[in-house]
Amino acid sequence: MKINIKAGLSAAVAVTAVTALAACSSGGGAPASDSTGGGGGGGGGNSGYTFAMITHETPGDTFWDRIKAGANQAAKDTGSTLKYSSDPDATKQAVLIQNAIDSKVDGIATTLVTPDALIPTVKKAVEAGIPVDSFNSGLNFYKQAGSLVHFAADERLGGKGAGERAKADGATKILCVIQQTGSVALEDRCAGVKDSFPNTENIQVNGADDAAVTSALQAKLSQDSSINWIITLGAAQGLDAIKAIDGAGVKAKIGTFDTNPDAAQAVKDGKIQFFIDQQPYLQGYLSITQLFLYKKNGNILGGGQPSLTGPSFVDSKNIDQILPFVKQNTR
């Protein structure tokens, strides 16, 4: 089964229009990756807008480099200032959102990885007259939060596709690896895998510690010889799974959500069967672009409906086409 859901036409048109606003780009490196915030922007004049992007990034997870690269480029293209901050702890992420409210930013883009913990603070931003859009996590919760629009992949659909691919490849039992407790997006991914392949077992690991992930997976594989497929929900865990298979001395195949240059190369080398792409660069770019367009023109992409940036599968058939974009940090 091939799933390839692209962002809506209205989003594509908006991206083209905003890109055309910038005659040139200047200044602004990648936004800061820690919770102290950072800056970016300046191309195509100065809009005077300051936007905050707040995520649940785990330090060292290179997936977020693409989110930030897209957001930083959008800030440049719209002549806006970008302040980036993150914390994987939901309570601390909510504090960062409150800090953005207190600093009276012109708009907030945030992930909704743990909706119950974040939505009350997001609503405070909306009540204060600060437009909010959401991305990456929380597809089923963004309207409740008051977000204008949501940019993300359909995670459960991606999981279903992963389960179907593993089933067609002779899976007997799938191990689905969840690297962050409480993440609704990760739970949806594994639920989707189980929808299409019921003999799926979830395992919870500490995604902030690669050695611990490898050890946990190796122990599980040594204990349960019926597992011959592993679905990981992040590129780093996919690479950890390769080490775990080697350490356990078993034969198993790996599919993963998301990617980084090493995981993409592992698909090229046949060590990972596929990765499921949600185009994080596009999520970062559209989130900041949407806030700019709303402040400038009152525009809302997709009429307020979610704008899907994935899922799509990258495997041996199309990795040569995609790999250069991954290495350039622009996928």
UniProtKB/TrEMBL annotation:
PROSITE patterns: PROKAR_LIPOPROTEIN. It is found in: Cell envelope. Residues 53-294 form the Periplasmic binding protein domain. Transmembrane segments: none annotated. InterPro entries: Bact_Solute-Bind_Prot2, Peripla_BP_I, SBP_2_dom. Keywords: Signal. Residues 1-22 form the signal peptide. Pfam families: Peripla_BP_4. Belongs to the bacterial solute-binding protein 2 family. PANTHER family: ABC TRANSPORTER PERIPLASMIC-BINDING PROTEIN YPHF, D-XYLOSE-BINDING PERIPLASMIC PROTEIN. This is Substrate-binding domain-containing protein.
